[in-house]
From TrEMBL:
<keyword id="KW-0106">Calcium</keyword>
<protein>
    <submittedName>
        <fullName>Sulfatase</fullName>
    </submittedName>
</protein>
<comment type="similarity">
    <text>Belongs to the sulfatase family.</text>
</comment>
<keyword id="KW-0479">Metal-binding</keyword>
<dbReference type="InterPro" id="IPR050738">
    <property type="entry name" value="Sulfatase"/>
</dbReference>
<dbReference type="InterPro" id="IPR024607">
    <property type="entry name" value="Sulfatase_CS"/>
</dbReference>
<dbReference type="GO" id="GO:0046872">
    <property type="term" value="F:metal ion binding"/>
</dbReference>
<dbReference type="InterPro" id="IPR000917">
    <property type="entry name" value="Sulfatase_N"/>
</dbReference>
<feature type="domain" description="Sulfatase N-terminal">
    <location>
        <begin position="14"/>
        <end position="352"/>
    </location>
</feature>
<keyword id="KW-0732">Signal</keyword>
<keyword id="KW-0378">Hydrolase</keyword>
<dbReference type="GO" id="GO:0004065">
    <property type="term" value="F:arylsulfatase activity"/>
</dbReference>
<dbReference type="InterPro" id="IPR017850">
    <property type="entry name" value="Alkaline_phosphatase_core_sf"/>
</dbReference>
<dbReference type="Pfam" id="PF00884">
    <property type="entry name" value="Sulfatase"/>
</dbReference>
Amino acid sequence: MKEEISLTDLAKRPHVVFLIADDHRGEAIGAFGNEAVQTPVLDSLVVSGTACRNTHIFGALTGAVCAPSRACVHTGIPLFRATIGKDMRNREHSSVIRSDVRLMAETMRDAGYHTHAVGKWHNDKASLSRSFEGGDKLHFHGMSDHNQVPVFDYDPTGVYPKENEYMEHTFSTALFSNAALNFIEDYQENKPFFLYVAYTAPHDPRIAPEPYASMYKKSDITLPPNFAPEHPFDTGDMVVRDEKLAGWPREEDEIRQHMADYYGMITHLDAQIGRVIDALKAKGIYDNTLIVYTADHGLAVGQHGLMGKQNLYEHSVRIPLIFRGPGVPAGKELQALASNIDIFPTVAGLCNVDLPEETEGISLHPHICGESDGVRGIVASVYRDLQRMVTDGRWKLIRYFRSPITNTGSERIQLFDLLNDPWETNDLSGDPSQIANIERLASELTSWMQASGDILQDKNVIPVSVGTEGE
């Protein structure tokens, strides 16, 4: 439903540049204390804005975590209600967003914003069409070679026939940044814009252009404390595509090279975002633009013996979330728990835009402005019919299920004290003194699963062997 607003009030609203990366881990930003990676542009956004450091993805029912995760960002609704119902027996791809829910860009458009999309849209074409009135270099795939990017021009009919797709050979991050720059430089309308820029970096293949490809040497890379040659048990998806990017067992030199390549992609992405920011400054609208930076999920890259995002460890479910612009305090880092379904409500709150009634995420706007201490007591995440996670910020419980469909996975739990063990190396689930803690978190997880419409809500969250480490 279109929001009634005067031109005077509309003019008071900020422009929005919403930037979303693919596979950018929550801690892989220099300003967050990671001295191994150079991110001067994102660091400047952290210094001049507010970073929400404890933001988790809702999760996925498919190995291609990007699409369902983005659906949660677009709708502010739990995965089980944001996408068209999925039949786990067929492991259907969770990419199609329900037609009866309003998306973030659609809501901004109805509130008077000019909406424009650039880059990756890993969801259905109909959801893009009802959200954006313009776009450029639209990529409807999960990934591609960064130097061979299949894209569409914006199609006002919303059909996007395959014959209209064409190949671009500019490196993807520069390609999408160029399109964003063109939009900003050419924009003349007398109303604010909502510019959505979705990158495919730092997703593999991780071969950044020079000088970024050679910027990080594997000999200089320090392996994280949770590096392991192999994961200690079957997570249920041990041979998914991402896990095949490195050999088994993981070799230290190979993982160091993967980390070097990953950091090179991130630093190149950072530089390209800098070009978008420079365009806002040249246009004279930087201080009147809300800039949002986030990612669809994180990535293991050797941590816990894993390579991908098909797990619920912090490296894979925790994402960066930075706000910079009007109404956002400078130099603030928040540790309050948040979910990626909270991003849309927060953007709407910062822009004084009414939310759709069906939105279930909670706005971080009051917390950012210092009017509350936080919005969530726990956050939880899902992965297929194999894993569930819940954390209260300090204690974290991961529940693993054995899939009756694929006959993979393990019936067990893990418990981590994130305050004293942020790398999740010391599983306390076998400690009898932690039984009460486990039962408390399990109860929280059960309630969350029921409230979210989880497909596994009838499953027993605590395995029979609680109190002794699972096999």
